[in-house]
Amino acid sequence: MAMPKLTLDHWLAGPLGGMLLAEERAMVAASLECAFGLHCLQVGDWGGPAAFLDCARTRRSALVAERAGPGIALVAEAAALPLQSDSVDVMLLPHTLEFAPDPHEVLREAARVLTGEGELVVLGFDPLGTWSLRNAFTRGGCPPGIVRTIAATRLADWLKLVGFEVGPAARYLYAPPLASLAAARARGFLGRAGRRAWPRFSGAYLLHARKRVHSMTPVRLRKRMRTAVIGGVAEPAARRIT
Known about the structure:
Layout: H1 5-12, H2 15-31, E1 39-43, H3 49-52, E2 60-65, E3 74-75, E4 88-94, H4 96-99, H5 103-113, E5 114-125, H6 130-136, H7 152-161, E6 164-166, E7 170-172, H8 184-197, E8 204-211, E9 229-230, E10 233-234
Parallel strand pairs: 1-2, 1-4, 2-3, 4-5
Antiparallel strand pairs: 5-8, 6-8, 7-8, 9-10
């Protein structure tokens, strides 16, 4: 299912959406500092191409979404990318799983498309956070169109099942989703207090995973039985103990 783009874009352009994108851009920029390569792909139009792809350290970057729009390089479903296997070095999934009909298929497709040791960055809302609580009691959702929220621990398990090594969750968004708290000073105070007092109950998290490469372990074959030569006469193989 595609994101309700017009409604979502309008929400992201508002005070809450702007606060959220500002925090997430800082989180993604820090996560991508050591993620290099040729291609970086953002799957899902969350904030447009300028929100995160400017932070990429790769030579090229592109945005894939289910609807055409400004800055979108490829129109495709997140669970069926028309790309070669092992062709992308870095992939971003900013809340993409929360809008997808089948998040497992999206993760399997990410594992297929990423190169060996490729990097995957996923953003998600925590089901126990205040943002998920407001989403549950807001008509149309907050942000609008979200189908589900996924706990960081559960998502880490899913990623491991499809072949990723997963780092610890980086948590953020401790300020509740109130427009009156959009000021940087208020967000900064609540962020510092939340990390000290209730670090588990953040509004959102970032998971950074790396695609595992399974190397082939050479199996040493047993040496062929050789005929022993004793005094110039071949010893019958049946008499030898191996």
